[in-house]
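Let us work through a complete example step by step.
Step 1: write down the sequence.
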Amino acid sequence: MSVEPIPGCTPVLLKRPYPIARSLEHPPTAQRALGRVLLLNDSLGSQHAVAHALRSDGFDVVEAASANAALLAAIERPPDAVVIELSGPEDESFDSCLSLKAASDTFLPVLYLSSRTSRAARARALDAGFDVYLTNPFDASELCAAVGALIRLKQQEAARIAASAVGMLLDDALDALADHVALIGSDSTIIAVNRSWTEFANDNGAGTGVGVGANYLEVCDHATSDDAEDAHAASEGIRRVLSGAVRNFELEYPVTRLRSNAGIVCWCVTYRAAAP
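Step 2: predict the structure and record it as tokens.
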């Protein structure tokens, strides 16, 4: 069964369908100060060594000598990552890790710096909630690289949540429109449709053939119904918008195969989202 385009629906070509987050690639060392690290360490000498290594690599370091002090510091100035090294029993470090994660409104990565080198100790720490396990004596470059990786992980999670929120807002905005609207990417693939588009497609026998993932221009190009000539004209017009030759395109034509007898307007416009 051939799939026909949906007359009466509005394809919107998105050169950039959603706001694109800034690159999360490894930043130069000089830019790492954007990452705040909370250091929980109850040994003065070790605390100084760890803090010095992190600051030398460009991190903003907040120091705390006790679990309570660390929790207060995290609430006052939320960190991007946490490094924990405590001299007491493992459980104290595990409890601190869980408390700091629970107090954070967002994903908070925590690195455990420990003198215990056994695989069993590493497994216990990871099971307890730590994200990275390093042993003492530590290598400064490895420590800084691990903390940098944790901060990038946090940034990526924040970007994913933001993109999800933008997507939900976009879906709600599209569904609020009475017009039949599809968002089409630069490769002419449908990336989103609103409720009106879906209902119209189902009512007129097109169904998922013109749903998300379908190539709308191919559907128009292969139209064979009585309205094929208009579908081909619509495809050509959309291609001109997509290539940048024109800003928008509009085509009005009668349609014989719709269950409702009405004239149709196919309208297409290019939308470019601005980067944040």
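Step 3: interpret the result. The helical segments are 44-56, 67-76, 90-103, 119-128, 140-175, 195-203, 216-221, 228-243.
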